[in-house]
Amino acid sequence: MAKNSSAADRRQAAREKARQIAENDARREKKAKTILFTSVGVVVVAFLTVVGFLIFQSMQPVAGPRNYAEGTMTVAKDGDELKAYTAPGIEEPGENPPPPIAESPLGSDAAVVTVYFDFQCPACKAFEDTHGKTLNKLVEEGKIALQYAPVAFLDNASGGNKYSTRAANAAACVADSGQVQRYSDFVMAMFAQQPQEGAEGMEDDQIIKIAEDAGVDVSAKVEPEDSDASDVRSCITEQAFAKSVEKETKAAFDERGLSGTPRVLINGKETESFREQDPQKFPLEVLRAAGGN
């Protein structure tokens, strides 16, 4: 009888021990799940916080350079100098845009030639080589307004150093400094020394040298809102307007009908005459738009 009782006690003790082990295992599993869910929750919250911050950042306004409106620089003659204006059709000119072209000596009937270009684009260089001097001459003669629309979508064609963006940023720096008279000279000089497509783009010090050779005062003051750059030189090296370049490039493709460069418009209407074999067709079309003067 004692033996049976002892065996029963052992079985009871074994069952109790098994129960305790099961309870301990359950508690450990519950604790592990709690830690796991807590960790996942922390990660999710952190992820959502980062995503929310990035969305918030993307929704913040990006300030462009002075004398630009929607990423473009429109120049026209006023007396003995060139001045910046806002071209017709600009829907969001910014907080302090240049005066409308209607206030220029050309008036509300001004012939406006718009040129979209990428500084790394070989076809844009060909356009500049063929028609750049003619367009600048017509501007100097007070016959047309020229709207420069630089974009940057060929960074991958510059050996990885984002030459398209840095070149467009440099042009924005010149504009922000108020050197409207030198802007077209800088654009022409940049195309004259365009790097070969696929090769490494020019470095900042080379761009600065081109600007100086084009008559740009690289010590002239700039006032970018999103950078500590204080002059054209530091504006170029710090890429003070790179975000603005990126924003306006995206808008050009997504909202303004751009599909490639060069893209040329005369009074808001797209033209292909510059692609003709006869190099006189495009200038003649521009002159007709200007009233044949």
UniProtKB/TrEMBL annotation:
The keyword Disulfide bond applies. Residues 1-25 are annotated as: Disordered. Keywords: Disulfide bond, Membrane, Oxidoreductase, Redox-active center, Signal, Transmembrane, Transmembrane helix. Residues 8-25 have a biased composition (Basic and acidic residues). Residues 110-272 form the Thioredoxin-like fold domain. The chain crosses the membrane at residues 35-56. It holds the Pfam family Thioredoxin_4. SUPFAM superfamilies: Thioredoxin-like (SSF52833). It comes from the Bacteria. One of its GO terms (molecular function) is oxidoreductase activity. Belongs to the thioredoxin family. DsbA subfamily. This is Disulfide bond formation protein DsbA. It comes from Brevibacterium luteolum.
